[in-house]
Amino acid sequence: MYGDEIHLWLHHIRAERLRDEARAASRPHRRSRTARARVLRTRVGWTLVEVGLRLATPRLPQSGLTARFDH
Asked: Is there a domain that residue 46 lies in?
């Protein structure tokens, strides 16, 4: 049938893309020094933002029941 040939052709294209993707994934991925530094700076930066937000957010008053179990 007409549709069978198209289906087979699309299957071959998809299979080739998957093989290329598998080859690329099997190679060891090496980042340059600047890329690693950028990733580290980003992590440290977001950690500092999180800490700053926690310090800047006022705490809600605790109920007496919760306060008793905190100690």
From this structure: yes
